[in-house]
Each structure stands twice: as C-alpha cells, then as structure tokens.
C-alpha cells in the first residue's frame, strides 16, 4: 500500500507540475509574448469572412435571378447572361470555401455548393424522373456549382446546342425546373449562413478566443487547412493522377465544362493567402502571419516560420501561373507541370497543417480522408 | 494536448483526495500486499499466443475478403477459416495445426451472423457489376480511384460489417464475458502456477490483453497494433482508451500475481465497461469519417457499414449496459438503403451514440 501511495503521489505531483506549466503557456501564446487573438478574429470576421459570405450571397441571388429570366424566355442573350452570372458566383466561391465552420458547417455549405466532378448520370436521372430530393447525400454531386457548370456549359457542344436543351428537347421543361431548383438551393443555403452570422454567431465567433478544439482560431485553422487539402487534392492532384499511379482524370477538374479551372485555382490560392495574412480590401490587418511573428515561431530549419510560409505561397502561386486553361487539356499535354504544382501545394499544406498548428498549439481534428 | 493534460490533472487530483482520505481514516484500509506496477506488460509466465493467433486468423479472413473486389470470392474457404477446417490459412501454417478456431470463441449469435455476412459478400462478388443504387457490385471512391469497395444493392459493405462485428462478437465478447468476468467473480484458480502460463487467472488476464492487439510497451510503441489496438488509438483524442486500458491491464495483472483481489476486481470492472464504451467511441469515429466523405457515395457507404457493424456488435456483449431496445433504436436511424442517407440521419446517429455513451462534448473529434 505504501509503495502504491508513493507511486500515486509521485505521479500526481508530476501531472500537477506539468499541468501548471501547460496552463500558463496556454493562457497566452506558446511563447512568452502574448498575441491579441480577439483583434485578429475581429479583423478576419469583419473584413474577410462576412464580406466573403455576403458577396457570395449577392452572386447567388444574381445567378438565381438570371435562371428565372432565362427560364421565362430562353434565348441566346439570356443564356450568355446566365453563364456569366454563374462564372461570377464560381469565382466568388473561391474566396468563401475556406470558412466551413459554424453556420456554414451546419448548412453543410462546402459540399452542398461545390462537390465535383458532377455526377452527370445522377443529374440526368433527376431531370428525367422529375424528382429531386436535395437532402440525399447521394445528390451532392448532382447539385451546386458543378452541376450548374454541366447544365450551362456541358449539355451541348456550343451555345446553340445548349439552348436547344432548354427549348426543343423533350426534357426541356424538366431541365429548366431542375436548373431553378439548384440555383434557388444555392441562394437559400448561403442566405441561411449570412443570417446566422448577423443574428448572433458573430458574437459567438469573437468571444471564443482560445485555441482549444471549439475555439474560433482552432476552427479557422482547421478549416483553412482542410480547404488547402481539398484544393491540393481535388483541384490539382486527383485530376493529375497523383493518387492513381499517374493515370490522369482530366474530367475531374473543378469547372470542367466552363473551362476556367486555372483561373479559379489562382483566385483560390490568393484568397487562402489573404486569410493567412489578414489582408482585405481594408488593408493588411492582423492575420496568422502577425501571430506567428509575435510568438517568434521558427521553421524546422530555424528561421522565421512566417517567412517560409509566405515564400511557399509565392512558390505555389508561381507554379499555378505556369498552367493554362482548360486545365483538363493541360493535364494531357503537360502532366509534369501539373504534378509539380501539386508538390508545391503539398509543401504549403505541411507548413500550415504541421508547423503552424504546432506553433499555435492547435489540434487538427479532421482526418486524412483516405484509407479505412 | 491541453485537453489531455487537464483530464490527467483532474484525475490526479481525484486520486490525491482518495489517497489522503484513506490515510486519515486507517480503519478502512485493507491489508494489501506491497508490489510495484511495471510500465510495460512484462510479467513472468505470460503467454497470450492463442489470442495473437486468433487475431491473425481474423486478419487473414479480412485480407481474403478483399478478393471480392477483383472476382468471385471463395465463400467455402472463408467458412473453413472461421472453423479452421481443411488447413485454410497461409499467413502462418501454425494456424492450421494450432487446434484453435474463431467460431467456438464467438458469441452464439455471431457464430451464425458471420456466415450470413460471408454469404452476402460472396453474392456481391459474383455480380461483376459496378456498384450503384439498386445494383450490387464493386464501387470506386470518387476521391481516390485506387480505393474500391464491394457493396450490396443497398450500399452495405459486408467485409466491413464482418470485420467490425468480429471486433465485438469475438474480441470484446471474450475479454468481457470470459476473462474479465472470471477476474471480477474470482472464479479461476490463482494458486497453481503452470510454467510459462502462470495461474489460470493470470493466463486468462494475459489472453484478454492479447486480444487487445497491442505491443507490450504500448502506447509508447504502437508497432503492429491491430483491430482494437488500432481503434483505441484512433479514438484517443476524445476517449483516452489507450491509457485507461493499459493502466488497467498492468495494474490488474500485477494485482493478480500479488493476490490483491480487490484491485484486480476493480480493474476487471474498468475493462469490462471500457470495452463497451470504446465500441461507442469507434462508432463515433466512423461518423466522423462519414462526415469527411459525405460527397463520396461509395466510400461513405462503406464507412456507414463500419459504423453499423460497431453498433450492431453491441448485441454480442452479454455484459452490456445498453439495452436491446436502445441498440435497435440506434440501428433504426440508419436508412434501409444506405444510398438514402441524409446529413440529418448522420447527425441523429452521432447524437444517439454520444448520448448513450456520454461522449457529447467530444462527439465531433472522436
């Protein structure tokens, strides 16, 4: 008994000792210097997150209106107007996708908006049957921007042929109904998210100033990293064949039918970098760059971690700039350049997901999404 | 990291209070032998090779089931492996001559369910179809072209259902109903030592440890951890099963060898409850994986099958706290056709399991 008590006491003492150490370091940043996380969260929510959501809401409202106008009188001019409204929404989504926490998580916004490649068979089944259940997860690849991409650019070889699908085709009426269901759903989902932020979630976000699993910084970093993960794999890696022993799947790129994959990817990496920097139309505010600098975070080679991350954003962007639209063709003609881009994105992800999170004391709670 | 430290310190404070109470009130202190508890599973006369062999048999069956992805599966061979008939194993030829089998160690319902699961998987393997709603066959993950699953027409992956129910109907069942029950009830001899195997009670305890599927210096070393040894690590961020189980196994074994009855009975209770609760944690871990593959019909259905298998396997635990009605209520939250799954279904499944096993605060990180 005495031995056991001594062992227990020793263990207790050790645990208490380490607990008090960790407590003092957790209350502030891991280094001695403190960083005003609330000020960073204020900058990010006021100048980046809410503007991103509301801008996407605007483009979704415009898109839905363009669908209504087109469905009323489907003609070449309305189709062109609808296509550009769609492109505007897809571009704005690139600056919105990273914020997949809180109300956006509740609304399942990311996968509801942008699951690709589109499941053309499922889309056509839904159109033919005239039934569509938006709550089925099996319909995720038959809705959102990728399905619209197919419906507005992929159902014919040119705009004349596309127009026929909405005028003379036997399923024209069903196709128009489906188009309207999808654009309305997009609009409804983002409106739900914006409303939630405007009716209480903003305060929730600003007040969860810790770095634990439920904190705003924790969720932001997790979703930022997850978005980089998705970017790396789905926009570049999978189409280029990095997960399939080099067998390319060019048709799996984002925006396959509208052929603006590289354009979107460049907007996407710019948006991710802006989150990291806290940079918006209002200027360069507090971001993770300032946070890492303030606490003196070092890279594995001993230098400033912030400098390494910024340099890697630049390197990855430069690689993306060497690619050309349509990316699906570029993959066929120059697969090496696409996989080289993947490699740089992979390095960026490691910095953000491993080095940055360990410096900030943030736990990654999402899995790798492969294997069992 | 912070979470675990806080939990650890809270535990330590409780321990400290408990110890000081006992010191102030010596009349309640039992006469307890003095002994030290090692930090690894290093005791004299330990032999859990029978458990290791059976885990190897399960693994070889799961490996053979992968054949459903490329052609017709040999169902007879799988059933022979289940009963160790006609020398079916090739991982290690000693399996064939071991005199050990899986079937007679399984909970009675599992003995017949396993055959049903094998038949279902074999039927899928014979179709030669590409899996989709209403069509049994082999499907490919949309995220990873190299990842394939054999699914029934309603999206069930019986290879995973088999694997997960064996974790319940064989491993948990043996640990909980056989070995831990014996320790808790003090129903085995703890006096006569057989060289290499210890007393009957020591041997039972060692076989239970062997079924966990971890190295003796776990969790410092995780090499070769399989089945529950793998899952206790996967759920460790939300439920610290690695430490809870290892501490209990070490403390209990030391107590048995030192005739400290009260202590090993307490550890047996911890492990009996732990091997039910970890099933809930594993099911929630699958929910998390489902959420990470929401838009991947094939992979999502396979993960839903894993989750279903874990929940269903609770039926094989005679010592469970969850009732049959509660298990059926959770199973009823799964759609009849897995292709009909909605996010609401996923959240309902998650919430029901979390509530049952008191994992509400960690339900999204397990």
TrEMBL record, chain A:
GO cellular component: cell envelope
Keywords, comma-separated and alphabetical: Signal
Annotated transmembrane regions: none
Cell compartment(s), UniProt: Cell envelope
One Pfam entry name: Peptidase_M75
InterPro entries reported in the protein's UniProt record: Imelysin-like (IPR018976), Imelysin-like_IPPA (IPR034984), Imelysin_sf (IPR038352)
Imelysin-like domain ranges (all copies): 49-350
Domain of life (superkingdom): Bacteria
Name of the protein in question: Peptidase M75, Imelysin
Source organism of the structure: Spirosoma arboris
Upper classification of the organism: Bacteria, Pseudomonadati, Bacteroidota, Cytophagia, Cytophagales
UniProtKB/TrEMBL annotation, chain B:
Alphabetical keyword list: Signal
Recorded superkingdom: Bacteria
Keyword Signal part of the UniProt annotation: yes
Protein name, UniProt field: DUF4856 domain-containing protein
Signal peptide: 1-18
């Amino acid at each position: 008994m005495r031995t056991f008590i001594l062992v227990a006491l020793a263990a207790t003492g050790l645990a208490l000792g380490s607990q008090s150490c960790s407590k003092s370091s957790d209350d502030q940043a891991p280094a001695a210097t403190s960083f005003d996380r609330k000020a960073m969260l204020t900058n990010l929510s006021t100048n980046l997150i809410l503007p991103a959501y509301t801008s996407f809401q605007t483009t979704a409202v415009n898109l839905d209106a363009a669908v209504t106008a087109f469905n009323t009188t489907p003609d070449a001019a309305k189709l062109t107007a609808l296509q550009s409204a769609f492109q505007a929404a897809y571009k704005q989504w690139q600056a919105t996708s990273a914020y997949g926490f809180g109300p956006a998580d509740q609304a399942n916004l990311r996968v509801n908006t942008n699951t690709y490649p589109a499941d053309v068979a499922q889309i056509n089944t839904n159109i033919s049957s005239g039934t569509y259940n938006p709550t089925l997860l099996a319909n995720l690849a038959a809705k959102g921007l990728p399905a619209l991409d197919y419906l507005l650019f992929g159902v014919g070889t040119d705009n004349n042929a596309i127009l026929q699908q909405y005028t003379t085709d036997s399923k024209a009426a069903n196709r128009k109904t489906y188009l309207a269901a999808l654009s309305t759903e997009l609009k409804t989902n983002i409106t739900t998210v914006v409303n939630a932020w405007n009716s209480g979630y903003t305060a929730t976000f600003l007040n969860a100033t810790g770095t634990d699993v439920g904190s705003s910084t924790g969720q932001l970093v997790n979703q930022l990293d997850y978005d980089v993960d998705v970017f790396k794999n789905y926009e570049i890696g999978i189409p280029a064949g990095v997960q399939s022993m080099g067998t390319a799947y060019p048709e799996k790129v984002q925006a396959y039918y509208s052929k603006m994959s590289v354009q979107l990817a460049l907007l996407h990496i710019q948006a991710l970098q802006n989150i990291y920097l806290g940079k918006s139309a209002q200027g360069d505010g507090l971001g993770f760059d300032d946070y890492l600098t303030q606490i003196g975070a070092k890279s594995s080679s001993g230098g400033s971690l912030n400098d390494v991350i910024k340099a890697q954003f630049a390197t990855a962007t430069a690689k993306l700039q060497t690619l050309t639209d349509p990316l699906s063709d570029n993959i066929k003609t120059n697969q090496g350049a696409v996989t080289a881009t993947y490699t740089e994105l992979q390095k960026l992800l490691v910095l953000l997901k491993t080095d940055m999170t360990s410096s900030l004391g943030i736990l990654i709670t999402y899995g790798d999404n492969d294997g069992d | 990291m912070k979470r675990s430290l806080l939990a650890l310190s809270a535990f330590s404070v409780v321990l400290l209070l408990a110890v000081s109470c006992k010191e102030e009130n010596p009349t309640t202190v039992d006469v307890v032998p003095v002994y030290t508890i090692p930090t690894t599973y290093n005791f004299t006369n330990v032999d859990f090779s029978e458990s290791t062999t059976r885990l190897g048999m399960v693994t070889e069956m799961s490996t053979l089931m992968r054949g459903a992805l490329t052609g017709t599966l040999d169902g007879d061979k799988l059933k022979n492996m289940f009963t160790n008939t006609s020398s079916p194993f090739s991982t290690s030829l000693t399996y064939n001559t071991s005199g050990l089998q899986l079937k007679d160690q399984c909970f009675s319902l599992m003995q017949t369910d396993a055959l049903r699961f094998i038949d279902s998987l074999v039927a899928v393997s014979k179709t030669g179809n590409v899996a989709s709603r209403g069509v049994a066959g082999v499907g490919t993950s949309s995220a990873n072209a190299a990842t394939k699953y054999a699914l029934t027409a309603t999206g069930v992956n019986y290879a995973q259902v088999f694997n997960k129910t064996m974790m319940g109907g064989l491993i948990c069942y043996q640990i909980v109903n056989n070995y831990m029950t014996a320790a808790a009830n003090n129903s085995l001899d703890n006096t006569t030592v057989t060289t290499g195997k210890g007393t009957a009670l020591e041997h039972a305890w060692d076989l239970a440890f062997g079924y966990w599927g971890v190295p003796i210096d776990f969790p410092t070393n995780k090499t070769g951890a399989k089945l529950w040894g793998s899952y206790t690590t996967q759920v460790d961020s939300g439920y610290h099963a690695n430490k809870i189980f290892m501490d209990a196994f070490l403390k209990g074994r030391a107590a048995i060898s030192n005739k400290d009855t009260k202590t090993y009975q307490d550890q047996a209770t911890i492990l009996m409850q732990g091997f039910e609760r970890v099933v809930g944690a594993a099911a929630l871990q699958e929910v998390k994986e489902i959420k990470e593959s929401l838009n991947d019909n094939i992979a999502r259905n396979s993960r839903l099958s894993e989750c279903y298998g874990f929940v269903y396997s609770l039926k094989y635990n005679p010592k469970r706290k969850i009732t049959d009605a509660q298990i059926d209520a959770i199973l009823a939250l799964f759609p009849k056709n897995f292709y009909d799954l909605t996010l609401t279904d996923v959240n309902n499944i998650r919430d029901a399991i979390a509530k049952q096993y008191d994992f509400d605060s960690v339900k999204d990180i397990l």
